[in-house]
Each structure stands twice: as C-alpha cells, then as structure tokens.
Design brief:
Layout (H helix, E strand, L loop, with lengths): L1 H50 L1 H9 L8 H12 L14 E2 L5 H30 L5 H6 L3 H30 L10 E2 H18 L2 H10 L5 H6 L1 H15 L5 H39 L1
Parallel strand pairs: 1-2
Amino acid sequence: MEEENKIIKAIKEKGQSIEAEMSFFDHLEELRWHLIRASIAIIIFTGLAFYFYDWIFDQIIMGPAHPSFWTYRMLCNVGNYFHRTGWCIDKINIHLQNNELAGQFTLQINSSLIIGITLGIPYLLYEIWRFIRPALHDKERKAASGFVGYASFLFILGVLFGYYVITPMSVNFLLSYQVSSIIENLITIDNYLSSVTTLTLATGVVFELPILVYVLSAFGLLTPKLMRESRRYAIVIILILAAVVTPTPDIVTMTVVAIPLFILFEVSIIVAATVEKRRLQKSTELMKSE
C-alpha cells in the first residue's frame, strides 16, 4: 500500500513538473512572438530610413555640423536679443573622411539601423508591456497602466533634448577646441556618427531616470530621503556636464543645459516620495486589517 502511494505521489509530482515546464515554454513562445513583432517594426523603420537616407544624412545626421542648424540660429537670436557677442556661429570647421572601402555603405546600413531602433523603442516597450500585463494583479495593472506612455514620452523628450541641445553644443565645442594650430582635425565619418548617436541616445536613456526611480522605489531600494541627501552631488555633476557641452563659458548658456537636468532630478525625487507614501499607506492598511 505504501509502495502504491509512493508511486502515485511520484506520478503527481512528475505531472506537476511537466505542467510547469510546459507553462514555462508557453511563456517563452509568447515572449518570442512579442519580440518578433517588435523586430518587424524596427525592420520597417530601418527600411524607411534606408530609402530616405539622402535627406536623413544631410538634414538630420549632419544637421549639428551646419551653422544653419536650428539650435545655432536660436542661440544667435537669443544673443542678439540680450546684446551679447560671440553667440552666433557662422562657421563649423569639420572635414569628414572615409578610410575604408565599404565605409560609406556600412555607414548607411548602421545609421539606418540606429534610426530604426530609436523609432521602434516605443513599440518595443508596448510589446514588453503586453507580455508582462497578464501576470499583474488589477491594482498593479492600473498603477502601471501608463508605463508605455510615460517611458516613451521621456525617451523621445530626452532624444530631442540630446539632439537639439547637447549634441550641437558638444560638436561645436569639440571641433573648435585646439591644443595647437599645427594640428588639423580630420574626423572619420564613423567617429562623427558614433558621437552624435551616443550623445543623442544617451540623453534619451538619462531622461528615463524617473521610470528607474519609480521601479527602485517600488522595491524599497531607493528613498526620497537618500535622493535629497545626494542632491548636492547631483548638482555638481550636472554643472560639470553643462560646462563641458556648452560652446562658451557664459553662465546663461550653461543654464540652458543645466535647468532641464535639474528639473529631471527633482521630478525623480517627487516620484520616489509618491511611491514611498503609497507603500506606507498599504503597510498601514495591512496592519489594521490584521
């Protein structure tokens, strides 16, 4: 009798194990289709970027290297309004070169892929949300319902700020910086593309700080008190970053770059405080119910 019970128990455990394995592979299969759909969207955006590449290269990729770029024109208008000299940028000394046989072809492919990934990130976030949503409780689903919208908005805002503020100021500063007049800057097109991409996308990722703070605060790994205590260090880092990327040592220009980053940090503190308040309320309600 005991032997039969052991056999039955072993069969049940094996059945549960098989069921768990099937459920795991079902989830993997579902995740695979979400990623496939996101990849298709990225491929479509990449194809469009490749097709319209002439305009994209001249107007977008090389935009920060032209004196007629929107940022330089606005900076000149602000300088004229306040009667400040040295704010207008009439010439940018840039000489691009390609030193590989297939360099220009790979440039078009790589930059088209980068643009495709950038445009496809909001849809990728949407597919990830669709995969995670069934596993959440109703309250968790409602609390995180705006995840895709907020994350996409912050990323796009960061990309625009990086492209229209950080990138042109950095490009102008680095190209005009000279250790000696006998040194001529001959920039490879790959290096230029890498710099523009890094500055633009890195700023987009930095603008996701409130989302990261929300997640860390929800798990109790970050508190508003810690962020407030770290505010002085954040201010120093932001000011150093603003001083590096601005083309002139003028305090007004540095402020244009620094203020949005200050606001982003303060918004993150508010997010952390809100999450902590909700967590404390839930803990109080749970203790009262017991």
